[in-house]
Design a protein that fits this description.
about 375 residues; alpha/beta; TIM Barrel; Lyase, Ornithine Decarboxylase, Chain A, domain 1; 2 domains; six-stranded antiparallel beta barrel; 19 strands; about 25% strand
């Protein structure tokens, strides 16, 4: 039989989270962000759960082709735009909308020969200092684009750097509005944190919102707020089973480097999951997981193919017992991916994207 580890994508949770985003910004249309292969979930696996979105936003042209192959005929936005001139040919053929964030992209568009003009999203660097034209150069870029016959419509765009924290969005939003107040075109401003934390403001300012992590059931501002606090449901479950048990005496050690020593008699389970499956190697003793829906802890180091778990809270658990590494157990108990990520010193985004190719994935409600 195959190794017992498995990941499950929950279509109902995707629909729920998308509805939660709409409720937070009811006057805006929604881009479902599916970059990085839908945050590791798989574009084909999330499509049905997210097809009620108004559009899909991503980075990769190949992923845009996959969406069109799924018979999606609505808007697709390339969040980083085009990287070379020939990319614009595919934008023309597939009807892709694309971001313009630098002079080089304007020059490429000016050199592009097309029968159908493009819908572009002109990005302002309002303080993130990654992509976009500074406020002082933004209107000149707009004027250059507006003069091109290759351009049908210009939308206006920025990205918030601190929507998940105390600094908030006010400074960047004021900068954006001061420069663009009299420019025509739709606005798209908001990531997950801005939508959930500043929805009352954003709903009036943004024609489109761009939820990413919230769609996948992770809190954008964890640990100050949890996914449950925001009414979000986990969309990805990683589960396995116990494949062996060991009885430890006081002083016995576990795993490579003997990093865990039993301070009392202890029964542990060996779980078929390791860093080669995408489980973070930096997790240490105390990382939470569920055994038969009961919360317990990992002990010792993560190995390539195995981890070990304290069975004290579940004395009846043995070989074959269900282990939920994150997500939803078969009994309905939940373990947020954010908790596991925090134990590894990272964020839920990384754990989702790091799911290994060798892990079988199924789609369920």
């Amino acid at each position: 039989m195959p190794r017992p580890i498995r990941a499950t994508v929950h279509a109902a949770a995707l629909r729920h989270n998308l509805a939660r985003v709409r409720a937070a910004a009811p006057d805006a249309r929604v881009w479902a962000v599916v970059k990085a292969n839908a945050y590791g979930h798989g574009i084909e696996r999330v499509f049905e759960g997210l097809r009620s979105a108004d559009g899909f936003a991503l980075l990769d042209l190949a992923e845009a082709e996959r969406l069109r192959a799924l018979d999606w005929r609505g808007p697709i936005l390339l969040l980083e735009g085009c990287f070379e001139l020939r990319d614009l040919e595919l934008c023309s053929r597939l009807g892709l909308w694309h971001t313009i964030h630098c002079d080089e992209q304007i020059a490429m568009l000016a050199a592009h020969k097309t029968q159908a003009p493009h819908r572009v999203f002109l990005k302002m660097n309002s303080g993130m200092n990654r992509l976009g034209f500074t406020p002082g150069r933004y209107r000149a870029a707009w004027t250059r684009l507006n003069a091109l016959p290759q351009v049908e419509e210009i939308s206006l765009m920025t990205h918030f750097s601190d929507a998940d924290g105390a600094k908030g969005i006010a400074e960047q939003l004021d900068t954006f509005e001061a420069v663009t107040h009299d420019l025509p075109g739709e606005r798209t401003l908001s990531n997950s944190a801005a939508i959930l934390r500043h929805g009352a403001v954003i709903g009036e300012k943004s024609d489109w919102v761009r939820p990413g992590i919230a769609v996948y059931g992770s809190a954008p501002d964890y640990p100050s707020k949890s996914a449950a606090d925001w009414g979000l449901l986990p969309t990805l479950t990683l589960a396995s089973k116990i494949i062996a048990t060991q009885q430890l005496a006081v002083g016995d050690t576990v795993g490579y480097g003997s990093s865990f020593t039993a301070g009392q008699p202890l029964r542990i389970g060996v779980v078929a999951c390791g860093y080669a499956d995408g489980y973070p190697r930096h997790c240490t003793t105390g990382t939470p997981l569920l055994v038969n829906g009961v919360r317990t802890r990992m002990v010792a180091r993560v190995s390539m193919d195995m981890i070990t778990v304290d069975l004290s809270p579940v004395p009846d658990a043995g070989v074959g017992a269900e282990v939920t590494l994150w997500g939803r157990s078969s009994s309905g108990a939940l373990l947020s991916i954010d908790e596991v990520a925090q134990a590894a010193g990272t964020v839920g985004y990384e754990l989702m994207c790091a799911l290994a190719a060798r892990v079988p994935v199924v789609v369920a409600e």
